Amino acid sequence: MTVGKISIVCWTIFVVMSAAFLPVAAAIYALSGLPHGAAIALAVVVVAVLWWGPFVYAMYLSQVVVRKGDPRLLKRGIRGTAEVLSRKATNEVIQQGEFAWEAPRVYKYRLRVSIPGKAPYETDSRICTSGYSEGSTVTVAVAPHNHKRVTIDPGQSGHAIQRPGAGHRVVVTSTYTGGDDSPAQGGSTSPAAAHFGELEKLGQLHSQGILTDEEFAAEKARLLGG
User: Fold this and answer.
1) How far is CA 1 from CA 30, 54, 206, in A?
2) Per-residue model confidence as pLDDT tens digits over 88-124
3) Which end of the chain, N or C, is less packed with Cβ atoms under 10 Å?
4) 10 Å Cβ neighbour count for 214?
5) How far apart are CA 195 and CA 174, in angstroms?
6) What is the value of pTM for the model shown?
7) Which domains does the chain have, with CATH numbers?
């Protein structure tokens, strides 16, 4: 089940409970055999879980998971790659800030996901970024027990790559931004330092099996001027 479908289920339960929470509480309170205090406590707990639980989780999905990418999956999920099959701007925005124009728009991506030990499959992912074009390959994290639930890693924004194939080479768009070892302006730098970001991305592609040994060696030699 995708995040979008989970959100629909949560909002449906919340709406139903908004109309039925009093009858549900009354029915629990009227259960025979329960002490008066226990019946009240049980009614409060059940109504709170069934009513406010779905609301809180739906808000979490929209404000955190859809806006920034699922942090739990990014930390503990199965890492893989996905080819972007389509990108669609939805009518949904996530309110952020005081003004309406500060609300980022949600984009729906159709992905063909590849993870270790499973044949490629298709699913959808919703996230507040438009930075991934059709045909590009992105890194993703997948829920271990729900492979349809996939989040795109937002930290790769601007680093989407084209899947290698006939007629074109890998395009790596990451850029080395420098650090403590970056050369002073006007100084010289080694090819490895100048292309640090590209080399790092190539290494990731190679380790993920997207690039073969020969393709990795060829691209590395090209970057280093060999």
Assistant:
1) 36, 16, 30
2) 988 887 765 544 445 678 899 999 999 998 899 999 9
3) C
4) 8
5) 9
6) 0.56
7) 3-68 (no CATH), 71-156 (2.40.50), 164-223 (no CATH)
